[in-house]
Amino acid sequence: MTSAELKTVARRALKENFFQKMLLFIVPIVLTIITTFTTKAFSDFIDIDNERIWKEFYETDILSDMLKEITAVWQSIVINEMLNFVISTLIAILTATAIFNYIDIFRGQKKEITLLSDTLRCFNDGYFGKIALLTITTQVILYLLNWMIVIGWIPSILLSFGWSQAIMVLHDKLEDDDYKGIWDVLTTSYQLMKGYKFKYFLFQLTFIGWYFLDYLSHGFVNFWLIPFSNMAMVAFYEARKQKRL
Fold first, then answer.
1. How far apart are CA 183 and CA 9, in angstroms?
2. Domain limits for position 145
3. How many domains, the chain?
4. pLDDT > 80? residue 151
């Protein structure tokens, strides 16, 4: 299947009763929009503070005062990074829960949406711990690799593409009562993506126009983009499993 065909079947899966299907992602969408605004505000604050510190550096001879200012800025940066990590992990967990529902919708196994119970599905079905463990593990590993400038970037990219199907794999292993731990899930995902990482990368590139619109709209395009892109990724997974890519 081509990228255009994958997007077409994703749109078709979303077409009927789109509003309720979108609401399955409402918490990740809102958190993403809030994060967009807070990240920009923090970036502006750091720029202003850096400018003030360097101005004071040239105007004063008191090195200790300047060091205190620099320390305060770095503390703010570290706290902001930690908060971003926590929020992004929470978004990833809630997104995984919504993807579980989207897989069932795509396969025609879910005709009706009960918003509250479906949104809290991971708690009701007892999957929360497994989803959280998988999400946190992948987030921590990729986060640490990204901090390893240059030498960590290549393995980070390879792992992120290789593990891109992990949530869908987890869904099927839980449904088939074949769950053997997160490393089995990650290994299965990586094997599934052997020879398909570049195709997945090209498929992701087809959304670049939407990401640009998302940037211009300060995140409000996400009300369409997040459901659409995630359903498209479900379509990619299904096509890969059926060897139709």
1. 31
2. 3-241
3. 1
4. no
